[in-house]
Amino acid sequence: MLRHANAPAGRFSQIPHEILRHPDLHSDAVRLLCWQLSLPDGVNESLSKTAERAGIRKVAFLRAKGQLKVAGYLHEWREQGPRGWWATRQLVSNVPLSAAEAAALRSGPPTDTRPAAGEPTGRAVGRHPDATCGENTSNPPPPGGREADPGVFDAPGPADDLDVPEARRLVDGLLALDPRLRVPRAMLPELARLAARWLEAGHMAEAVRDSIARCLPGRGSPIHRPGGLLRYILREVPPVAPPPPPPRVANLRECESGRHVQPYLFRPSADEDVCGPCGRSEPTSPLECPSPATVGPALARAALRDGL
Description:
Shape: extended
Mean pLDDT: 76
Radius of gyration: 30 Å
Helix content: 25-40%
Strand content: 5-15%
Structural class: mainly alpha
Distance between the termini: 42 Å
Number of strands: 4
Strand order of the largest sheet: 1-2
Number of helices: 12
Order of helices and strands: HHHHEEHHHHHHEEHH
C-alpha cells in the first residue's frame, strides 16, 4: 500500500486516531463528529444541522447520534428558559467523557450576573392589548382545561395503548432518580405509555433512566414543568445500539497434546482437545507434529486417488 499526503498549510483539523479507528462508530458517526470538531470557535451549529449539510438521512442520523452517545463523545441536556420554552444543549468532544465530566464542562466558570447599564425600554412588538375582546375567539382551549404547552409535542392519543408493568414501575421510580421530577399523578399513565415504547424497541429500563438523567439540566437549575420535560425526552425513541461482536479468538482452543513447540490454537468442530493433525497421527517428537500446510495437500491427493 503506497501513501502520499501533503501537509496542509491551513484549514485543517487534528482528529485523534481513536475516533477514526473506533470499532463501534460507523462512517456517519465519525463524519458527524469530525465535522463538528472542525467548526471554528463561536459557531453554534446543532448536530441535526450538520447531518443535513453532510447529506445524512434521518434514520442514519439517529443511529449515528446514538453511537456517539454510547461512546461518550456526545452529551445532551434539556434546558428550560425563563419563559418556559425548552431547548436542547449539546456537547461534543474529541475524547470520551463521562456524565460527570460532561456536566462539569457544561457548567463552566461562573458568569457575571450584574444587570446591564441603562434604563429599561418597552417592547416594540407583542404588547398586551389595552382592552380584552368581548367575543369568543376561534381557538378555544382544549377539553379538560389544560392549556397548550408551547414547544412540547402533543401527547399520544388513545390508540397508543402500550402499557406494561415494567414501564409503570420505571415512571414511578423517576422521583428517586431526581427529586425535581415530581409530576402530577394524572400524567403517569401517559408517561408510562411513552416509556413502554422504549421497552418495546428493546431498550432496558436502566438505559431509559440513563437517557433521562443525561437530558436533565444541572443540579442547580430548577425544572418548572417536569411532566412536559419527561414527555419531550421520551417522545423520540432512538434505535438500540447493537452489541459489540465477539473477538475472533473466542471460538478457538489451544491444543493440549503437548507436541507443539509453542501454543497452537485451532477451531474445534466438537469437543476435542487436540488439533486435527495431532488427533490423526502419533508423532514421536514435537518436531514431527504435522502442520496443516503439509497435511492438507496430502489428504486432498488421497481423496482424489480414492475417487471421492
